[in-house]
Amino acid sequence: QVQLADTGGGLVQAGGSLRLSCAASGRTFSSYAMGWFRQAPGKDREFVAGITRRGGATDYADSVKGRFIISRDNAKATVYLLMNSLKSEDTAVYYCAAGGNGLGSLNRPDYWGQGTQVTVSS
Asked: Is 42 exposed, middle or buried (0-12, 13-18, 19+ CB in 10 A)?
């Protein structure tokens, strides 16, 4: 069992930046691939970014490639999402999630954070 607490959302102007954090507690954080997902009003939840257990590989949705960076600090049991050049279409509730061994496990994460709202004003 692992508990996830995601924070760092807020209101930002288009073109600005935000960094989300997700702190984990419970089982060993380094046992999990970690990811960020988002859900905009009226839309399905979608994958944003993922990172392997030791941070050796990452994956991004096409819509955020080159703008967002996922990273993790296993000593702090925290995963981050740095979001640059934000656009109005990035407005959503962002959720961190924990999967299994590899990035493929994020197709069906085992654990979810409670979500943090990101609003980008144009």
From this structure: exposed
- pLDDT tens, 82-111? 999 999 999 999 999 999 889 988 989 999
Phi, psi (degrees; rounded to nearest 5) at 44? -75, 155
Beta-bridge partners for 5: 23
Pairing of strands 116-121, 10-13: parallel
Q: Positive or negative CA dihedral for 120, 11, 78, 46?
A: negative
> In one letter, which amino acid is 43?
K
Task: Give the CB-side neighbour count of residue 103, counting CA atoms within 13 A.
Answer: 14
Query: Whose CA is closest to 9, among 121, 116, 122?
Result: 116
| Residue listed under structure tokens 């069992």 | 1
Residue burial 43-66, b: 16+ Cβ < 10 Å; e: rest: eeeebbbbbbbeeeebbbeeebee
Quote the pLDDT of residue 89. 97
